[in-house]
Protein backbone atom coordinates (compact mmCIF):
# COMPACT_ATOMS: atom_id res chain seq x y z
CA UNK A 1 0.00 0.00 0.00
CA UNK A 2 1.64 3.30 -1.10
CA UNK A 3 1.91 6.27 1.19
CA UNK A 4 -1.21 8.42 1.09
CA UNK A 5 -3.48 5.49 0.20
CA UNK A 6 -6.83 6.03 1.90
CA UNK A 7 -8.34 2.57 1.23
CA UNK A 8 -7.95 1.41 4.86
CA UNK A 9 -10.09 4.30 6.14
CA UNK A 10 -13.80 3.87 6.83
CA UNK A 11 -16.42 5.86 4.92
CA UNK A 12 -17.11 7.82 8.10
CA UNK A 13 -13.44 8.80 8.41
CA UNK A 14 -13.39 9.90 4.76
CA UNK A 15 -16.52 12.03 5.31
CA UNK A 16 -14.99 13.56 8.44
CA UNK A 17 -11.79 14.46 6.58
CA UNK A 18 -13.80 16.02 3.74
CA UNK A 19 -15.84 18.10 6.18
CA UNK A 20 -12.77 19.28 8.12
CA UNK A 21 -11.04 20.13 4.83
CA UNK A 22 -14.00 22.27 3.72
CA UNK A 23 -13.82 24.18 7.00
CA UNK A 24 -10.13 24.95 6.51
CA UNK A 25 -10.69 26.06 2.89
CA UNK A 26 -13.53 28.33 4.01
CA UNK A 27 -11.03 30.01 6.34
CA UNK A 28 -8.60 30.63 3.47
CA UNK A 29 -6.21 27.66 3.73
CA UNK A 30 -4.88 26.30 0.42
CA UNK A 31 -6.38 23.07 -0.95
CA UNK A 32 -3.28 20.94 -0.31
CA UNK A 33 -2.65 22.28 3.17
CA UNK A 34 -6.34 21.90 4.09
CA UNK A 35 -6.30 18.24 2.99
CA UNK A 36 -3.08 17.55 4.92
CA UNK A 37 -4.45 19.11 8.12
CA UNK A 38 -7.81 17.34 7.74
CA UNK A 39 -6.22 13.88 7.51
CA UNK A 40 -3.86 14.71 10.37
CA UNK A 41 -6.89 15.56 12.51
CA UNK A 42 -8.74 12.36 11.52
CA UNK A 43 -5.63 10.29 12.30
CA UNK A 44 -5.22 11.98 15.68
CA UNK A 45 -8.90 11.48 16.56
CA UNK A 46 -9.41 7.91 15.37
CA UNK A 47 -5.91 6.42 15.48
CA UNK A 48 -5.46 6.12 11.70
CA UNK A 49 -7.14 3.73 9.28
CA UNK A 50 -9.51 1.21 10.82
CA UNK A 51 -9.15 -2.54 10.40
CA UNK A 52 -12.27 -4.71 10.44
CA UNK A 53 -13.10 -7.07 13.27
CA UNK A 54 -15.20 -7.09 16.38
CA UNK A 55 -13.60 -5.40 19.36
CA UNK A 56 -10.81 -3.78 17.34
CA UNK A 57 -12.16 -0.27 17.75
CA UNK A 58 -11.05 2.25 20.33
CA UNK A 59 -13.04 5.31 21.38
CA UNK A 60 -12.57 8.49 19.37
CA UNK A 61 -10.82 11.42 21.01
CA UNK A 62 -12.30 14.71 19.80
CA UNK A 63 -9.79 16.90 21.64
CA UNK A 64 -7.80 17.75 18.46
CA UNK A 65 -10.87 19.29 16.80
CA UNK A 66 -11.74 21.31 19.91
CA UNK A 67 -8.13 22.44 20.28
CA UNK A 68 -8.09 23.91 16.77
CA UNK A 69 -11.24 25.90 17.41
CA UNK A 70 -10.02 27.24 20.75
CA UNK A 71 -6.67 28.35 19.35
CA UNK A 72 -8.28 30.46 16.62
CA UNK A 73 -8.11 34.21 17.13
CA UNK A 74 -5.34 34.13 19.74
CA UNK A 75 -3.07 36.28 17.55
CA UNK A 76 -5.70 39.00 17.13
CA UNK A 77 -6.55 38.97 20.84
CA UNK A 78 -2.96 39.76 21.82
CA UNK A 79 -2.82 42.90 19.62
CA UNK A 80 -3.95 46.37 20.64
CA UNK A 81 -6.99 48.01 19.06
CA UNK A 82 -4.71 50.44 17.21
CA UNK A 83 -2.64 47.60 15.72
CA UNK A 84 -5.77 45.76 14.57
CA UNK A 85 -7.21 48.94 13.08
CA UNK A 86 -3.99 49.73 11.21
CA UNK A 87 -3.87 46.19 9.86
CA UNK A 88 -7.50 46.38 8.72
CA UNK A 89 -6.87 49.71 6.95
CA UNK A 90 -3.81 48.28 5.22
CA UNK A 91 -5.79 45.23 4.08
CA UNK A 92 -8.65 47.39 2.79
CA UNK A 93 -6.20 49.52 0.80
CA UNK A 94 -4.63 46.40 -0.73
CA UNK A 95 -8.04 44.98 -1.70
CA UNK A 96 -8.99 48.32 -3.26
CA UNK A 97 -5.73 48.43 -5.26
CA UNK A 98 -6.16 44.85 -6.44
CA UNK A 99 -9.77 45.49 -7.47
CA UNK A 100 -8.65 48.40 -9.67
CA UNK A 101 -5.91 46.28 -11.27
CA UNK A 102 -8.38 43.63 -12.48
End-to-end separation in angstroms reads: 46 Å
Report Rg: 19 Å
How many domains is the backbone divided into? Answer: 2
β-strand percent reads: under 5%
Query: Would you list the SSEs in sequence order as H and E?
Result: HHHHH
Strands, total number: 0
Residue share in helices? 55-70%
Q: Sketch the major β-sheet.
A: none
Helix segment tally: 5
Low-confidence stretches: none
Structural class: mainly alpha
Question: What's a quick, concise take on this entry?
Answer:
Helix 1 crosses helix 2.
List keywords for this structure.
5 helices; 102 residues; 65% helix; mainly alpha; elongated
What would you say this structure looks like, in words?
The model has no long low-confidence stretch (mean pLDDT 87). The protein has helices at 11-26, 31-46, 63-71, 74-77, 81-101. Helices cover 65% and strands 0% of the residues. It folds into two domains: 10-50 and 61-71, no CATH class; 76-102. It is built from five helices and no strands. Helix 1 (11-26) packs across helix 2 (31-46). The chain is mainly α.
How would the blueprint of this fold be written?
Blueprint: H1 11-26, H2 31-46, H3 63-71, H4 74-77, H5 81-101
Amino acid sequence: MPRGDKSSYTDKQKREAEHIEEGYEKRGTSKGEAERRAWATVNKETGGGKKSGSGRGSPENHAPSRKGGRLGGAAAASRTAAERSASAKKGAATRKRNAQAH
